[in-house]
Structure formats: C-alpha cells, structure tokens
TrEMBL record, chain A:
Transmembrane segments: none annotated. The keyword Coiled coil applies. It comes from Fervidobacterium thailandense. Residues 124-151 form a coiled coil. Keywords: Coiled coil. SUPFAM superfamilies: SMAD/FHA domain. PROSITE patterns: FHA_DOMAIN. Residues 239-295 form the FHA domain. This is FHA domain-containing protein. Pfam families: FHA. The keyword Coiled coil applies.
From TrEMBL, chain B:
Residues 105-300 form the VWFA domain. Pfam families: VWA_2 (PF13519). InterPro entries: CLCR (IPR051266), VWF_A (IPR002035), vWFA_dom_sf (IPR036465). PANTHER family: CALCIUM-ACTIVATED CHLORIDE CHANNEL REGULATOR, ZINC FINGER (C3HC4-TYPE RING FINGER) FAMILY PROTEIN. It comes from Fervidobacterium thailandense. This is VWA domain-containing protein.
C-alpha cells in the first residue's frame, strides 16, 4: 500500500510513484502498529476494498477499542476527497429525492436567520458590511448591468416555469441570481427567497443544493449597462479578466467597456481546479461580487451555472457551462 | 562518505549574465554545465550520475527538461508560477545523416500572380528569383523522392505531379511560371498540393509554399483552414514570403498546425539560400510523427506555451476538454538540430507539508524512425522539488527566464498584428512600447530600435509600413536561433575565455 505525502490518498498499486495530485507516494505498512491507529488512513482503507474493510474494522476495534461512533468520526475533508466532492454529493442527494420528498424537504427548511444560513462566515461578513444602502446599491447595479427587461439566462433549462417568481424576487430586492431548481423542475429557491425577505438582510446565496457547478468548459457572457456585449467559450486552465491597453495579458479585455477606468488591469482570474471553475479577485481595489458574495482581494469562490459576477457599476459577467456540441 | 556543501554564489553581469554555483556532493550528485554563451553556470542536484536528466537509453531521442524554478518552498501557501522547458535532441552517436529519411514527396507551390512580375532586385523579377531558387531542389533529389509543382494565380496549375523528372523536365516545368499572371487564390493552390500529397507512398511529405501577397480571390481564413487540413494529412509545410507585400503573420499562422517554418526572401541571393536550406533540412529528417502527451497533475494549471526553436512560435493556451491531458504534434526531428518547447505552469501549494519530489506532469513521447520503420515510446515524470531550504527556493535557471522573455517578443508581435488587423490604435501603441522595452531588457537593441521606429512612423504617418512589420515578425521568429547543434566545444577553451589564463 502506498500513501500520498501531499493529499493522503491511498493506492494499492505498489508500482505507482506519484499520486494524481502530483505528490510522491510512500510505502505504508499493511498492519497498523498496536494502539497507534491512524484514523484517517484506516478509513481510507475502508473505502478501497470491501475485503479489507472487515479486517481493518477488526483492527480498529481491537487496537483502538472504539466503542463510540464519534471516535470513528471521519473528517469532512477526507470524505469529500475520497468519496465525492461537496457539489457532487448534493447532486447525488438530489437524485434520490422525488417531487413529494422535495416539497417535504422544502417545507422543512427553517426560516433563514443569520445563524441558520449555511454560509455562516459569509453571512457574518456581509452583516458587518451590510446596510440597506448597500443592498439597494447592489440591486441597482445588477439592474444597471444586466438590465431589467431582458429575461436572464437561467441556471438550468428547467427554469422556465419560474419566471414570475424570479421577477418577483428581483422586485423585492432578493439577490436575483440563481434561483435554485432541482432536476424535476421544482424550485427550492422559493423557500429561501421568502425567508430572506422576512429576514430583511443583505443578499444571501440561495441553497446550493441544486446549483450546477461549472465543469469542463466555461461560457462567459459579458454585459454592460443592460446590454449583452459578447459571449465566448473557454477551455483554458486560467482566464484573466482585466483592462488592458494592449490586450496582451488578458483573456477578457474590459478596456473598451470601461471608459472611466474603474476596473483593474488584472481584475479577476477564473481558474480550473479539480475540474471545477473558480473565480479569484486579483485586484486590490476594484470589486468583485459573485452570486451575492463580495470577494476580498485574493479571495476565491466556486462558480456555478448562471452566476452573475459584478466587476463595476456597469460591467458584469454571467457564467455558464459550455454546452456539448452533440 | 565525504559530504561537500558548495556555497551559492551569484554574480550579475549587467542584466542578463549571471553565474550560479550550488549543490551538495554526497547523497545527491551535483553537476555543472557551462553554456557556450557564457550566460551562466547551471548546477543542480539530480539522481542521475552525470549530465542532465536523460530519458531513454535505447531511444533515438534524448529528452531533457528543466523548470525555471526547480525548487519550491514547502511552506508556500500560494501558487507558484513556473516555466517548464522541454528539449528534444537526436541522440549523439546513434542518430546521424545515414538514417535520414530516404524518400520525400516534395510539392513546390509557387505564386505566379501578376505582382510576381514586379522587379525584385535590379532586373530580376520576383518570379524569376523564385524559379531560379526552386531549381536548386534538383540537386537534393534522390531516386526515392518525387516532386510536384503547383503554380497558382487565381487558380492552381499542376505542371508536375509526383514525378521523378530529369533536370531539364524539372526546370521546364518551373519556367512555366513566366506565362501566368492573375489574381491570387492561396487556398485553392494549397488544396491542390494537399490532394497530390495525400496519396500514401510511405515517403515524408513536404510542401514548400511561396507567396508575394495576400489572397485576393479567397480569404486568409480559407488559407488557414487549408493549413489545418494539411497538418491532418501529416504534411509538413514551409511558407516563404517574397518581397514586401505579403502578410508575415498569415504565413506564420498557416504553418502553425503542421509545425512548419517560415522565412522572408529579401533578395534573389537570399531566396537561393533559403530554398537550399529548406530542401536540405527536409532531407535531414530522421524522426517523424513526434507526439507529446502531457498528463498534468490534478491541481497543476497550464498557461501559454511556445515552440522556442527551431523557430519561435507562440501557441497560446492549450485547451483542456475532459481530462488533464494535452496532446501536441511536434516537429519532425533533423539529425543536426535540437527542439525546445516552453510551457507556463502554475504549481499549487502543498496540502500537507513535505520535502521531496512533486510530479507536475507525466510525459509520454511517441515517434517514428522511418529508416527502421519502427515506432518508439518514451515516458517520464516531470518533477519539481519541494524543499524548506530557502536558498534553493530562490534559485532560478536564468537560461529559462531568458528564453521566456525572448518567446514573449513573438507573442507581443502576434498581438501587435492582431491589433493592426482591427485598427486598434491604443493597443498598437501600447504593444509597440512594451515590445521595445522588452527588447531593450534583452539587450536586443536592433529589435528595440526597430519597434521604436515603427511607433514613430505610426505617430507621424498614422500607418506602419508592411516592410517594417515583416522585418519585425521575421526577427521575432528567429529570436532564439534555429537550434543547430554545434560541434562539441573545447571546454578548456571555454574556461580560458571566461576566466582568462
């Protein structure tokens, strides 16, 4: 058995020298030293082989005398790494839910209060900065950039039945980004948006349960002052967005869209990591808002279908998956 | 065991000359190489016993690689921007002219449009210079070769097809160029050449394409599409521009997919020299169908990439579809030339701190040796070292840094031509300033002055002459040399030159 020094992944193939992450693989003993169990390692082993499962389980219970479940608690990080990633997990979760379950599920979602919001860190951050003015500002910026009359691209094609709700959400100042929608066309965003209304707080991300991550290729649609300026598909590892006089260093040049020079030369970077796309604010001064989240300089956020990115008062992007040609 | 630790010394000689000495003797072997240009001493610890990291002892190609930053801090919490330089060269003592390809199917595609009848130098017209230069192919032909000649103006005219002509027949065919003279349709001519060469004969296939202008009866896009189709047929193309009216960037783009080369015929004597060199190079090919597959580790990201030599070419960013693999067709290998490719790489910080090797990518190189009728495969892990030694972390291969800067000149020139195409004057001025500054940094004063003159001309007259653009583009493709392998240097002489007696 070999273990990656970098990410900790375990391989049974002794011939391998490097992990898929690039980290070197080192040989690990088959048997755990008595009383010195590596919980993570043993759990990983469990995932690798059913035959090995019982053996390791015995070792764990014998060697470590585990009696309580919490003693065998698996790190969330390990779970994501070795089973499925967070988004995939949610997708898997979604696929098990039928319509009635979804309704039931939706009804169980509690009223959103700051303490209940999933993105707790984000919420606190936003609250510290938030004010009614800010909320209004963001809303008006969104209207300015993406326009009000034009029907915005939806996160999924199954959103057609939710236009009215979407518009309603905009009118009441709810962050008008992805109204989440499950694979059966049911909108779970409604519950969240209602809750947000009642909470009267700054824009909050809708539940990410049905948000589709951007994978493989990314489509960027650029808007300026309510008009769609251009759209382009990218398959690169990194896409640099900025205002460049020469256009040499950037993949998306904002120069001709930004006469007031509000955007930065190196404003934001979209990059691919483990097959998913993320955005990072590169600029120290120019702002980046993604799906209601204000990014600090250097901060990174994952991108999902339909996310609206604000780069200035008038310039914004909508991201989507590149649709397959067939 | 004796352990010797060499201290690190860096000497700066102006902007680009430096000397680095470092390393341990003991567990890891340390070696020193001296570059001919005396730009630096390069020392690095490797597992191999001597020389650079070499791959494939039974192979016909020696592949070496180096990262601009071979060591990365284990403590780093940020991405590390790096450059990977891959070099392929035919294996000394194994690969020589004796195993060069036996047969080549040549196809000469000559522009015979009206403008070719304009004077080139003295009384010599462009078409005359081209025909006379092309006649020299005959001297390189062997019994296994075939030759085709396609003349073109608004339509292609096949005057010789896959023939093994006598000298007289060959020259007579070429001289038919004097009777034509119309507008220009490049894509039709290239399509005809492709159709002729698409028949499989087992020979190497080569198009030598010459133009003096821009397409008039078709578009550049039509020509570029043909360029891609030619590459799919595994046909190599050399594109030559004659005079001052053609678009250098167009011919550069035309040959990109087939990893071809370009040149500028400035005078009849130059034309002769360049045609001869093109034929000679084709007949020097020893290895074909070279394909490089790079399977990058999960979180490693890839930016732009370049061919460094034999001709500097900016290829932009590779596209990743559904996995982390990039597959690239590389140049055919000549027995007396080396080939370098440069990749911009972003390496992520470690998840768990450790010291040791980190695989950036797994490389698979496949190629074919026609003289043996045998395909080869070579695999290698491309590795950087994570370390906590801060001295090592700050070390750089200045040769790689230098190459990066030179390659970026070609990129900037490409962007300049794009800006000119859309008449984006802001961008044109910005790029001219930037490229001139970069050229100064590299001590390439001739190029820097040239770009400054271009900017002055733009500001005074509002336009840049095509001749200046051609000269600049031609220069930036040759900025790293042509990769010819020199004779083995006398190391004693080099030391003497550096340190005196």
């Amino acid at each position: 058995m070999r273990k990656c020094l970098n990410c900790g992944a375990i391989y049974s193939d002794d011939a391998l020298k490097f992990c898929d992450c690039g980290g070197p693989l080192v040989r690990i003993p088959q048997e755990q030293p008595e009383g010195v169990g590596d919980i993570d390692l043993q759990y990983n082993d469990l995932l690798l082989s059913q035959d090995y499962e019982s053996q390791v389980e015995r070792e764990i219970s014998d060697g470590l005398k585990i009696t309580e479940d919490e003693d065998f608690e698996v790190q969330e990080l390990d779970f994501q790494r070795h089973v499925v990633d967070d988004d995939e997990l949610e997708d898997v979760e979604g696929s098990f839910l039928d319509d009635s379950m979804l309704i039931e599920y939706s009804e169980k979602i509690p009223e959103v209060e700051p303490s209940n919001v999933i993105e707790e860190g984000l919420m606190n951050e936003e609250i510290s900065e938030s004010s009614e003015n800010l909320e209004e500002d963001v809303e008006s910026i969104l209207r300015e950039i993406f326009g009000l009359d034009e029907k915005m691209p939806e996160p999924t094609a199954r959103m057609s039945s939710q236009d009215a709700l979407d518009e309603e959400s905009k009118d009441v100042g709810v962050w008008p980004s992805n109204i989440s929608c499950d694979s059966n066309g049911l909108d779970r965003g409604q519950v969240v948006s209602t809750s947000i209304e009642s909470a009267e707080v700054v824009p909050v991300q809708t539940s990410s349960i049905s948000r589709k991550p951007i994978i493989s290729g990314i489509k960027l649609t650029i808007y300026r002052s309510g008009l769609k300026v251009s759209e382009k598909d990218f398959w690169f590892d990194e896409i640099l967005i900025g205002r460049s006089k020469s256009g040499v260093e950037v993949d998306v040049n904002l120069r001709d869209l930004d006469n007031e020079r509000i955007t930065s030369r190196k404003h934001a970077k979209i990059f691919k990591d483990d097959g998913k796309y993320f955005i990072q604010r590169v600029s120290q001064n120019a702002v980046v808002w993604v799906h209601g989240k204000f990014l600090e300089p250097g901060e990174v956020a994952q991108l999902y279908e339909g996310d609206r990115i604000i780069l200035s008062n008038t310039i914004g992007l909508i991201v989507d998956n590149v649709q397959p040609m067939f | 065991m004796i352990q010797i630790h060499l201290s690190m010394v860096i000497w700066n000689f102006g902007n680009s000359y430096s000397l680095i000495v470092r390393g341990n003797l003991g567990d890891k072997k340390t070696f020193i190489t001296v570059s001919k240009t005396l730009k630096l001493f390069e020392c690095r610890g490797l597992e191999s016993k001597e020389g650079e990291k070499m791959v494939g002892s039974e192979q016909k190609i020696v592949m070496t690689y180096k990262f601009e930053k071979p060591y990365i801090s284990s403590d780093s919490t940020k991405d590390t921007e790096n450059y990977l330089l891959l070099e392929l060269r035919p294996k000394t003592g194994v690969v020589n002219e004796k195993i060069a390809v036996k047969g080549v199917d040549f196809c000469i595609v000559l522009d015979v449009s009206g403008s070719m009848k304009e004077p080139f130098e003295g009384n010599v017209t462009k078409v005359k210079a081209a025909v006379e230069a092309a006649k020299h192919l005959y001297g390189f032909l062997t019994p296994d070769d075939t030759v085709s000649v396609v003349l073109y103006d608004s339509a292609p005219y096949v005057v010789l097809e896959r023939a093994k002509p006598t000298k007289e027949e060959f020259e007579k065919a070429l001289e038919k160029a004097y009777i034509y003279g119309g507008s220009t349709n490049i894509s039709q001519a290239l399509r005809k050449a492709r159709e002729i060469l698409s028949k499989n004969t087992g020979n190497l296939k080569k198009i030598v394409f010459l133009t003096d202008g821009i397409p008039t009866d078709d578009t550049e896009q039509d020509g570029l599409r043909e360029g891609r189709l030619i590459a799919e047929e595994k046909i190599s193309i050399t594109a030559l521009g004659i005079g001052n009216d053609f678009n250098y960037k167009f011919i550069e783009e035309l040959v990109k997919p087939s990893r071809g080369t370009t040149d500028w015929l400035k005078s009849p004597s130059e034309a002769l020299k360049i045609f001869q060199r093109t034929f000679q190079r084709t007949k020097s090919t020893v290895i074909t169908n070279v394909t490089l597959e790079l399977d990058f580790s999960n979180k490693v990201r890839v930016g732009e990439y370049y061919r460094v030599v034999p001709e500097t070419t900016y290829y932009g960013k590779p596209e990743f579809k559904w996995n982390r693999k990039v597959e690239l067709e590389l140049d055919n290998i000549e027995y007396n030339r080396y080939y370098q490719y440069l990749f911009q790489i972003t390496i992520p910080p470690l998840k768990t701190k450790f010291e040791g090797p980190f695989r950036v990518a797994k490389m698979t190189l496949t190629y074919f040796v026609p003289s043996e009728n045998k395909a080869y495969k070579m695999e290698e892990d491309l590795i950087v070292e994570f370390t906590t030694d801060e001295d090592l972390v700050t070390s750089r291969y200045s040769t790689v840094t230098d190459l990066v800067c030179r390659c970026q000149l070609n990129k900037l020139d490409t962007k300049l031509n794009e800006a000119i195409k859309v008449n984006d004057k802001k961008a044109i001025v910005g790029i001219l300033q930037e490229i001139s500054a970069r050229a100064y940094e590299l001590n390439d004063y001739e190029l820097a002055d040239h770009y400054e003159k271009m900017r002055d001309e733009l500001l005074k007259k509002g336009v840049i002459s095509n001749e200046m653009l051609i000269k600049a583009s031609n220069h930036t493709t040759k900025v790293n040399g042509e990769g010819l392998i020199d004779e083995v240097e006398d190391i004693t002489k080099v030391f003497k030159d550096v340190f005196g007696s």
